[in-house]
Specification:
Layout lengths: L1 H17 L2 H17 L1 H19 L18 H17 L3 E9 L2 H8 L1 H17 L6 E4 L4 E9 L4 H16 L2 E3 L2 E3 L3 E7 L8 H17 L5 E3 L2 H22 L3 E10 L5 E12 L3 E3 L1 H10 L3 H21 L7 E4 L2 H4 L4 H11 L7 E6 H6 L3 H13 L2 E7 L6 H6 L4 E4 L1 H4 L6 H16 L3 E4 L5 H10 L3 E2 L10 H16 L10
Parallel strand pairs: 6-7, 9-11, 11-12, 12-13, 13-14, 14-15, 15-16
Antiparallel strand pairs: 1-3, 1-6, 2-3, 4-5, 8-9, 8-16, 9-10
Length: 509
């Protein structure tokens, strides 16, 4: 009891000394000392007060006690200054500090479901919960709409294991169900942290930036992931930043163009179309795969511009091939969610088709099944229906991965389903795969839909799909995506194969 009473008294005294009221009482104390005891008492106070503050305050950071609303934006500078003070304190002691970044997962989805006002209440409750998982001197501040920074007060045990435990504790309290407007809400978060000793430099700014890099890595591996900062994260972030700057220029100077993968009829072997796939031919790094540059396109908000470039080049290619004597029935172009949300999309497509004097049926609008299955957006629904009414073909891409209902297939006027590669693999040898594909083809026949098997890689897969009744195929077994010039050459060779008479056998000598 005596120990707890002493600790309580010490905390009270510390609060008085570190609090704003000290500014009012210090002048009164010094003047009173001078009035009662003269210069000697004033000298003693001058020597003793700093020592008293150091002992009772225990080296704490005054910024940590400043009144701040952790749900308010724009507190980055506050956190950086707090970390600067903590780092300075650590240099004088054998204690350590760290910075953590807590970022809520799918916060935009939460806003769309609950609205901004309810989400503000969610933030307040989450902040209150995080405070229960931290110590009094740990500082929590909101950096942006979804992220909170935490400056950990110096401690002897602020090592990697301790930070992982604290991060897990924070995730635990954040993920507990909370009630907002009689609605139960469950939120998860990704966390990145950096130990003070591992920061790129000994400043609060560098420490916080390192924690931000760590939470970015956590989000890419999330949701609900935890990551500790490593120097490799900085190198990856720089490469991604450089890519982000380059991709904008690449879109405008012709480095990013469509490559074309042929689609053929399993009945006649004739080319029935091409799918246009974006490829980046970098002048120094060579061909950059889509999985590397498409995230940069998305981050830069350039998906709609990418769609414009691919559509223009694809329609231009149809005309050029026709001039060379190759009539390609249609070209398939993938449309992203960003493009499908453009209220002017149908007018834009009509204008582009008129520009090249092409009928709408020459364009196949490829839409991911996940978009059709999950959309509640009236603009997307209206645009797809409008393109179908215009006369464009509607292809449902990656069928079997997004749980699109039959009602949605009819609602979006889908004309052809593209069976995902996962169902095509080993269809010639795996009876289970054959049953799955047969079921899909039977459904398509009943709905009067055309079918195309994606990712065909072997002659056996090709033959089995033809036998089961799949109308079209595409994949590496037929041809890989190729630039415009190579596509014309490929069509010439393919045409020669179809027109060449069959070889029965050798003539007897």
């Amino acid at each position: 009891m005596a120990g707890s009473s002493t600790a309580l008294s010490r905390r009270s005294l510390r609060a008085i000394i570190n609090g704003p009221q000290a500014l009012a009482f210090l002048p009164a104390i010094t003047l009173g000392g001078y009035w009662l005891g003269g210069e000697s008492t004033l000298l003693i106070l001058a020597l003793m007060l700093p020592a008293l503050i150091a002992v009772v305050g225990n080296g704490s950071n005054p910024l940590a006690h400043s009144s701040n609303d952790a749900t308010e934006l724009g507190q980055r500078e506050f956190v950086e200054k707090t970390l600067d003070n903590y780092l300075e304190s650590c240099r004088k002691t054998d204690k350590y500090t760290a910075a953590l970044m807590v970022e809520l997962d799918d916060y935009n989805g939460l806003i769309s479901r609950l609205g901004h006002k309810a989400c503000d209440e969610v933030l307040r409750q989450i902040v209150a919960r995080m405070r229960t998982a931290l110590r009094d001197l740990d500082v929590v501040c909101r950096i942006n709409g979804t992220a909170f920074a935490i400056a950990m007060a110096p401690d002897k045990r602020a090592d990697l294991e301790a930070m992982i435990q604290i991060s897990a504790r924070l995730q635990s309290v954040v993920s507990e169900p909370l009630s907002v407007d009689a609605t139960t809400v469950i939120v998860s978060c990704s966390i990145g942290f950096c130990l003070g000793a591992r920061a790129p430099s000994n400043t609060g700014e560098a420490l916080l930036e390192a924690a931000e890099l760590a939470v970015m890595d956590a989000r890419h591996n999330g949701p609900n992931a935890i990551r500790s900062y490593t120097p490799e994260m900085r190198r990856r972030a720089k490469a991604q930043h450089d890519l982000l700057e380059e991709v904008t220029v690449a879109l405008e100077n012709g480095q990013i163009l469509p490559w074309f993968q042929p689609q053929v009829s399993t009945d006649t072997g004739e080319v029935t179309g091409f799918e246009a796939l974006a490829r980046w031919n970098h002048p120094e790094r060579g061909l950059i795969p889509p999985c590397d540059f498409l995230p940069a396109i998305e981050e830069a908000g350039l998906f709609e511009r990418l769609g414009e470039v691919i559509l223009f080049q694809s329609l231009a290619s149809l005309v050029k091939w026709q001039e060379k004597g190759f009539v390609v029935p249609k070209i398939g172009v993938n449309f992203s969610g960003a493009e499908l949300k453009n209220p002017k999309l149908v007018e834009k497509i009509r204008w582009e088709l008129d520009r090249f004097d092409l009928s709408p049926d020459r364009l196949a609008v490829e839409v991911l099944e996940t978009v059709v299955a999950g959309t509640g957006d009236d603009i997307i629904t209206r645009n797809i229906a409008g393109l179908a009414s215009l006369g464009c073909a509607i292809d449902l891409d990656d069928f079997g991965t997004g749980h699109a209902s039959i009602a949605n297939i009819r609602r979006f006027s889908v004309g052809r389903i593209k069976i995902d590669r996962s169902f095509i693999m080993k269809v010639d040898t795996d009876p289970e795969q054959q049953r799955m594909v047969t079921a899909i083809l039977t459904m398509a026949e009943q709905l009067n839909l055309e079918t195309l098997g994606e990712g065909v890689e072997t002659v056996g897969e090709h033959a089995m799909l033809a036998q089961l009744g799949c109308g079209h195929i595409q994949g590496f077994g037929l041809a890989r995506p190729m630039p415009f010039e190579d596509a014309a050459e490929w069509m010439q060779k393919h045409r020669s194969k179809l027109t060449a008479p069959p070889r029965i056998g050798r003539k007897a000598g």
